[in-house]
Amino acid sequence: MKRVLTYGTFDLLHYGHIRLLKRAKELGDYLIVALSTDEFNEIKGKKAYHNYETRKKMLEAIRYVDLVIPENNWEQKIDDVKKYFVDVTVMGSDWAGSDRFDYLKDYCELVYLDRTEGISTTKIKNDLGLQEPINGVDQIPEENSTKK
Asked: Using CA atoms, how far apart are residues 29 and 48, in angstroms rounded to an integer?
């Protein structure tokens, strides 16, 4: 079985994310997504609209994704590749040449995929003028909640 791994925040899921996940899955049989935790995003200076658990649930609902694991820090990548027997790590082409991923070539195949032009989470947030969730309210209700 050929295992593929990718990393990201995957906030405000959009067609670019789905396209990346589909193309990543096409490179193997089993797709692992290392999802940045809220704490790691804070270290990176990023603020996701949805919290980690909500983003994880959304990714798990996508047919291309087989497993979602937490991304807690920059340094965990080699351990992830070894622990999950990863054959290919896939990232967006904007990471090409970055010291954040290129060293993985010593441990597995590294593939950079072009981003989907004209769409990004940042663009969506800017276009919609989104604010932070109020009182921690997410956009996905709990399974046992009822509509009001």
From this structure: 29
**pLDDT at res. 135:** 52
Q: Torsions phi, psi of 8, nearest 5?
A: 170, 175
Single out the catalytic residue among 2, 22, 44, 82.
44
Q: Catalytic annotation on 125?
A: no
Is there a catalytic annotation at residue 44?
A: yes
Task: Please list, residue by residue across 34-61, b when 16 or more beta carbons sit within 10 angstroms of its beta carbon and e when fewer do.
Answer: bbbbbebbeeeeeebbbbbebbbebbee
pTM over 0.85: no
Residue 139 near residue 54 (C-beta atoms within 8 A): yes
Tens digits of residue pLDDT in 48-71 = 889 999 999 999 999 999 999 999
